[in-house]
Amino acid sequence: MAVSLRSHEVSDLCIGKPALKSLPISATAGDALLALKKGGDTCLGVWAADRSSPERKLIAGKLCVGDILCFLCVDENLDSPADALKKPLSDLLPKDAGLVRRVEPDSSVLEALDVILDGAPCLVVPIRSGGRRKLHHHSAAGGGGGAEFCWLTQEDFVRYFFNSIAHFAPIAAHSVSSLGLVRPNVLAIQYDDAALNALPLIRRALADQTSVAVITDDGKLVGEISPSILAASDETLSAAFATLSASDLMDYVDHYGSPPEATMGVIKARLKEKGLKGMLELLESELYPPFSSLSSSSDEESSRRPRRLRSAGSYARGSEEVIVCHPESSLAAVMVQALAHRVKYVWVVDEEDYGLVGIVTFADVLKVFRDQLKQSLL
């Protein structure tokens, strides 16, 4: 098994993956928002010219709608979202996130996995047919001026290992708790807390590729504020963040595209109370026609609407559910859940009262497989 997996190259994981879309670091936040909403992508690459070789592009980072919403909600931008959307992408890139890493198509899967587990949020792989050379895996992402790249994410690696799950028996049948995969320290906010209080947690969730749990006073999971929810929204969600509680924000998201008039009335009234005139204009006028025009009922937009939230258990909040498992769920079962629902984590709840126990993340799952491979190579 180890010999077989060691012979696989990164290019095996990239088959069928589209070229990443990117913008220069000098582009504005508004440019990025428009590109994300028009293209239907969940994230964009941000490139900068290599100072030592101006014709060479370095992929300096990636941005998603969640990053833009967090940027709009910082104190200095809340009252003037129009000005904030004119700021360059260099202002949005997390200062402590590190560079996106690059690996070559002929690098081994295990070499690339080590880069992911070393903290890279994702990898970029050049799409080209010839003249490939392997770079040290700590290199900054970059390539020639005309090179195209694709993203390689934690999900790609988990799917790769799941396709070879038979080679990892009996580990795959072990419970996530017995494997030490249930991480008790989760990002969580109480349902009646102000949604703005979740922003630091959302930034961490975006970096860690997890989510923010919304819980009751006694620790029961009632929903989440996830990257997928933010990716399916637009700049107007920043007004809801600025005025609503976490629970009310989830209700707002449940009705995204056609929120109740009463909810909109509350949001506008609170914006007036706070003196956030710029944010109020965002709601009351078509301040950004290119973005507002994307709020149609087209099939493309409908397919990107957020997953509605559902409480863990038998009582429903919306049409879909937060993905949960129990401490005794098997590793294979949890992988199936996550991959089927295109999430990079699964919440762990108590089987009896659905209290939040922890979270299983793709990053931790990948460490289990890497440890197994290391042991098999001894």
TrEMBL record:
Membrane-spanning residues: none
Region feature Disordered, mapped onto this chain: 290-312
Record has Kinase as a keyword: no
Domain CBS per the UniProt entry, residue ranges: 318-376
Entry annotated with the keyword Disulfide bond: no
GO annotations of cellular component type: cytoplasm; nucleus
Keyword set, alphabetical order: CBS domain, Repeat
SMART domains registered for this protein in UniProt: CBS (SM00116)
PROSITE patterns: CBS
Protein name per the record: CBS domain-containing protein CBSX5
Taxonomic source organism: Elaeis guineensis var. tenera
